[in-house]
Specification:
Helices cover 58% and strands 15% of the residues. With 523 residues, the chain is an alpha+beta fold. The strands form 3 sheets. Strands 6-8-9-11-10 form a 5-stranded mixed β-sheet, covered by helices on one side. The two termini are 68 Å apart. This is histidine kinase.
Length: 523
């Protein structure tokens, strides 16, 4: 954003969701009152429950007094009436017991099975039962005349408890309601109305009202409390905001004086940096290209060194050994003419082998430097036969069987380079094709106009990892001694690519390996 695009010092409107609604001025008071009423109601319920429980225990004690009265007063009278077989009196006594308070049912049964039973019309549930045996004493002897069963009901106790609970509830609720109204009024008068004024003041506070302090409507004789502290904090905040805005205005004025100069300086520096960045990018690209060329050159030079050390070691060793034997003839070592010819023939072969290696190195160097290659028609079969003749000694040494297929199509390329490819593939098949290897050579015309030349052996083949590294420099999968007349499959790949062809490896369906390279056909 430009430096002069500073936000103007204007008032901000408070979002509607942050405004305090004037239609709910007693929200805090209602919550406080609800909390007070809730806690008071809980305590009132606990106290009422204790009171009701006490009334219930008192009623139970009164009921037990009735049982004592029946046992002490009515039971001897029933015994006398039953001894004298005074049925009207027995019936009157049973009726009198049934009319007693809290008695729901009375059952009297004598020893011969006669029953007297009275039930209260409102008897539904039994509080508890009592069984009293009726004895009559005569001259110190006791006679069991029957059994009195009295069932006490809780109708009166329930009614009294309901009445007591209603009285307690009415008294408690009335007290709580009056207390809530009074507390609500106190909260509104002492707290809520002042909080509402603070909220309205905060809502209306803007740049035009920063000079108006917040003043609460309270008497001058009141004791300072938390509301006064909040009002004072709001006033101090108002003063700090006013001072900060004044400082900001002054700083903005000072900033405006330097803005144009700074923008011009930034533009100049930006332009200079862009030019420097562009120059650095061009230099970086050039350095990367030079670095890639140097790396490639170093890689190939390293390949030369390894190749010379690898391929010249064996012929030089052979020549040194033969030369040592020939030079030792004058110090008493006598060799036959046949042995001398063999040593000389070995020197000649080693020299020829070194010449072939040097030709291959020169071939690699010319291949690296050649920009355009002139392709000529080639007799692929004849070049393959020349490669076989070149490796004749190695073929005989391995007792190999070489088979050339019929129908060889013509292709375009460079004869010396193609022969080097055949030599590399054929020597590789002789190395890894197993004992007394059987090797097939052939060429097939492809639908895309290319000629696919291939060397097939029946050895163990290569796994997937070995196939991925097959055409890299100096990769050898088995440590097996064998003569080498080429620079390896990496050179094969480079030569074939230079001739607009390709290389590859396939695993034969009947076992073994198929190494192939392709050349453009003559069409």
């Amino acid at each position: 954003m430009p430096l002069d695009a500073q936000p103007p010092l204007t008032t901000k409107k408070v979002p509607p969701e942050l405004l305090v609604s004037p239609r709910r001025p007693h929200r805090l008071g209602v919550r406080i009152v609800a909390m007070v009423l809730g806690s008071t109601l809980v305590f009132a319920l606990l106290i009422s429950a204790l009171q009701i429980y006490g009334a219930y225990q008192h009623a139970l004690r009164d009921t037990r007094h009735h049982l004592v009265d029946i046992e002490q007063n009515y039971l001897p009278l029933l015994a006398t009436a039953m001894w004298s077989v005074d049925e009207p009196r027995i019936d009157a006594l049973v009726t009198s017991i049934a009319k007693m308070e809290d008695v729901g049912r009375v059952l009297l049964q004598d020893d011969v099975g006669q029953r007297w039973e009275k039930t209260h019309p409102e008897f539904h549930t039994t509080l508890f039962n009592i069984d009293l045996p009726v004895y009559y004493e005569d001259n110190g002897e006791r006679f069991l005349l029957g059994q009195l069963e009295v069932a006490l009901t809780d109708n009166r106790i329930r009614a009294e408890l309901i009445k007591t609970a209603q009285s307690i509830a009415i008294t408690t609720l009335t007290s709580l309601l009056l207390s809530a109204i009074f507390v609500l009024f106190i909260i509104h008068w002492w707290i809520s109305r002042h909080l509402e004024k603070m909220a309205r003041y905060a809502q209306n506070l803007d740049l035009t009202t920063l000079e108006q302090p917040l003043v609460l409507e309270r008497s001058s004789t009141h004791i300072t409390d938390e509301l006064d502290l909040v009002a004072e904090a709001i006033n101090q905040m108002r003063i700090r905001i006013r001072d900060d805005l004044d400082n900001r205005t002054r700083l903005m004025d000072e900033l405006h004086l330097h803005r144009e100069k700074l923008e011009l300086l930034v533009a100049e520096r930006t332009h200079a940096l862009e030019e420097q960045t562009h120059a650095l990018e061009e230099k970086t690209i050039a350095l990367e290209q030079q670095s890639a060329a140097l790396l490639e050159q170093n890689y190939e030079l390293d390949a030369y060194a390894h190749t010379v050390a690898h391929d010249l070691k064996q012929p030089l060793t052979s020549m040194a050994a033969s030369a040592s034997l020939l030079s030792a003839l004058g110090i008493g070592i006598n060799l036959s003419e046949i042995k001398k010819r063999e040593l000389l023939l070995g020197l000649q072969k080693s020299a020829q082998k070194m010449q072939a290696i040097i030709d291959s190195l020169l071939l690699l160097a010319s291949l690296r430097k050649t920009e355009t290659i002139h392709l000529v028609p080639l007799n692929i079969r004849q070049i393959a036969e020349e490669a076989c003749n070149r490796l004749e000694s190695l073929i005989e040494q391995n007792h190999a069987q070489i088979e050339l297929t019929d129908n060889w199509p013509a292709a375009l390329g460079q004869g010396q380079w193609v022969e080097e490819v055949w030599v590399n593939y054929l020597s590789n098949a002789l190395k890894y094709g197993g004992p007394e290897p059987r090797i097939q050579l052939g060429a097939t015309a492809q639908d895309n106009g290319m000629v696919k030349c291939w060397v097939k052996d029946f050895g163990p083949g290569l796994n997937e990892q070995e196939q991925l590294q097959l055409f890299d420099l100096f990769v050898q999968f088995e440590q097996k001694s064998a003569d080498s007349h080429g620079l390896g499959l990496s050179i094969v790949k480079r030569i074939t690519r230079a001739l607009n062809g390709n290389v590859g490896y396939e695993k034969s369906a009947d076992g073994g390996s198929v190494f192939w390279f392709s050349l453009p056909g003559t069409r």
